[in-house]
Design brief:
Shape: globular
Radius of gyration: 21 Å
Structural class: mainly alpha
Helix content: 55-70%
Number of helices: 14
Number of strands: 2
Amino acid sequence: MASSHILVGASEHAAAPTVRSISPGDLADALEAGWHDFSAMPSHAVFLCVIYPVIGILAAALTLGYAFVPLLFPAAAGFALLGPVAALGLYELSRRREAGLEPSATDAFEVLRSPSLGAIVALGLMLAVIFLAWMATANAIYTTYFGYGSPASISQFVHDLFFTRAGWSLIVVGNIVGLVFAIGAYLISAVSFPLLLDRDVGAAGAMLTSLRVIVKNPTTMALWGLIVAALLIIGTIPLFLGLAVVLPVLGHATWHLYRKAVVADQSPRAEFLPRPPGKHYAAQFPVSLFKRSED
């Protein structure tokens, strides 16, 4: 049944992936390998991720309406919850390069033909629900301390946030609650999406494996979470443009971290499929506007 495949993958009786112990040195190795992937495929990675700085700038512009200013930081922080979904194409490029193939930008879209696509969509929807729940919670926390009215101006909001008791209460409570949401999302998605691209283990198997990786390596994985958060903050400077480098490097590095932390040899492998003849993707623009002679 389709629902069974989404949950448990191609085989209900396959052995669970083996989880390794990893060290901070492995994190450094993963980041170095991620940088090498980015260096080898910079145009592809930037193409996939340049949209996110644009989205960030547009989001900032839209929130200049004072009613939405209090949600600017929760929205920016909450988008990190969706990062594993945004990096799917990068995992696929790293997977192909590791296998000795010559990846192209269009290979990132091979995710859409993955045997685990149903599980990937299900897990992505779960992260989207967590993000929406976080936004609703952040808004409720704000209204608890400041009511339903909008700030009179951005400067007034900044003053109220940093120079009033309610503002500091909002900062402390908001960050604590946000951390809870971030930990929840991290537990189920730390290595889930790379695993689903590599092996047809189902959403339940991927989430359980991600949880096992963190339980087996709590200090190292906590450090990885801090590294990711720090790099994302750095990437927002200036005007989110740094994310065009930070996001692809982290995406590639996450693939290599998965490979260090998980051995899934007994699970059904997601084989590389031949590309359908004559098919073009947006990443090939403007070449895709013209029919090639060999198509």
